[in-house]
Amino acid sequence: MSEPVFLPAGDTALVVQFGEAVDAAVNRRVRHLAAKLRESSERGVVDIVPTIRSLMVHYDPLETSAGKLTAAISELLHHRGADEDSYRLWSIPVCYEGDCAPDLDNVAREMKLDTGEVVRRHAAEPLEVFMMGFLPGFPYLGLLPEEFDIPRLFEPRVKVPARSISVAVRQTTVYTVECPGGWHLIGQTPVEFFDPERAEPILVAAGDRIRFEPVSVADYESIRKAVEAEDYTPVSEEIAP
Predict the structure, then answer these.
(1) Between 89 and 24, where is the model more confident?
(2) Selection from 49, 45, 20, 19 nearest residue 34 by Cα
(3) Which of 13, 89, 142, 150 has minimal Cβ neighbours within 10 Å of its Cβ?
């Protein structure tokens, strides 16, 4: 794997870029460096923002410099150790039927598969949370099989329902609140990935894995009622590396 590249981002931020492609191994290196940099309490660091393939480090130019941070981060990279840590595996119910999946037929045609096979492949393996972004609690997950390498919608929707499961460019996401969006909607979960009233408002974190479990419309409605009554807890377990 190639060495990261250090890129200036104005006079108060430094980007550590690990590659050009969306790749699970690259993303693990980003998350691992973010964790190590937080642990180091490096002088002058204001914020650390991990993305899918790079890490942006915001700093106070009165406390440090890009050169000093580059040297400190290079040392952390030299002694980085294993990239894989323990993670939480979530089992999340998803309804891939009817109004929950308005784009499933179109996605199936694009992939040259029937809808049942699209669902099977989408839910076949646990998917890794690469990063959080765009909305509170919004996870970017991947990578899906190559057949899911389909472009985003040419014309985004003005409103995407909350808890919609979407796909594009071999990734999948969960829209946590109603908002505009340009990904293909193939399902909906009854589970809230963001709930400001919960003790922990954000359900998942970068590095977690999610296994989507197909459920019927009837089961979806039953689970949704339980969620609204605060009588349902998503299943998760801690997995050691």
Answers:
(1) 89
(2) 49
(3) 89
